[in-house]
Amino acid sequence: MTVNAEAFKKALQDWASGVTIVTTTSSSNEPLGMTATSFTSVSMEPPQILVCINDSALTSAAIAENHYFAVNILGADQQAISNLFAGGASVENRFESVAWSKGINAVPVLDESIASLECKVVQQIRAGTHWVIIGEVKQAICRSGKPLLYFRTRYRQLNNESDQ
Ligand SMILES: Cc1cc2nc3c(=O)[nH]c(=O)nc-3n(C[C@H](O)[C@H](O)[C@H](O)COP(=O)(O)O)c2cc1C
């Protein structure tokens, strides 16, 4: 039995998530990044996370070459950055409008995201159209702010003022 494609999409839209920018560096040392909501924690010991990245995204091939990437968790006021890194800006122009610095292995870290996790690839598994990229977290930087959320194809915000 094959799941109905519409039902599959609709069910997934009922999953609420945060929004991240996954970054790495190209073989010519250019910063690369894309918006991704498919981020989850995997293991505490060793500390591991995963992201699922489409094979067609430039970032996925670059992570495979570089072996390092970062996951930058966006704040509530960073919807425009999410749109830029989801195709709103060309790959070359995406970093022009964000503050960033070089982290481990020169991987870009977004200075104004609410948290950044710098990772080394430990496994990259092909699954359909995507790569499941599991990374061991080498550095976690926590800043401050409320997260940007994504639910039923729209950006959302926490509405409880005490949720900081
Ligand atoms: C809210 C949101 C979440 C997304 N999550 C993912 C994701 O988890 N994995 C993925 O491969 N693409 C995801 N995308 C799509 C990519 O960000 C988009 O295709 C991007 O342009 C790919 O990068 P590229 O232009 O460098 O190929 C998401 C887009 C949006 C707007």
Can you give a write-up of this model?
There is one protein chain. The chain is of the alpha+beta class and about 160 residues long. It has one domain: Electron Transport, Fmn-binding Protein, Chain A (Pnp Oxidase, Chain A). It contains three helices and twelve strands; from the N terminus they run H-E-E-E-E-E-H-E-H-E-E-E-E-E-E. The chain has helices spanning about 5-15, 60-65, 80-90; strands spanning about 15-20, 20-25, 30-35, 40-45, 50-55, 70-75, 100, 110, 115-125, 130-140, 150, 155. A hairpin with a 5-residue loop joins strand 2 (about 20-25) and strand 3. It is globular and about 45 Å long. It starts with a helix and ends in a 7-residue tail after the last strand. The mean pLDDT is about 95. Flavin mononucleotide binds next to strand 3, strand 5, helix 2 and helix 3.
Bound molecules: flavin mononucleotide
Number of helices: 3
Strand arrangement, major sheet: 3-2-6-9-10-5-4
Beta-strand percentage? 35-45%
CATH topology: Pnp Oxidase, Chain A
Distance between the termini: 44 Å
Give the number of DSSP strands: 12
Shape, please?
Answer: globular
The largest sheet is: 7 strands, antiparallel
In which range does the helix fraction lie? 10-25%
What is the overall pLDDT average?
96
- Please provide the ordered H/E string of secondary-structure elements: HEEEEEHEHEEEEEE
CATH architecture: Roll
- Main CATH class: Mainly Beta
Q: What is the name of the CATH superfamily?
A: Electron Transport, Fmn-binding Protein, Chain A
Which regions have little confidence, pLDDT < 50, spanning 5+ residues?
A: none
Count of distinct structural domains: 1
Secondary-structure content class: alpha+beta
Q: Radius of gyration from the CA trace?
A: 16 Å
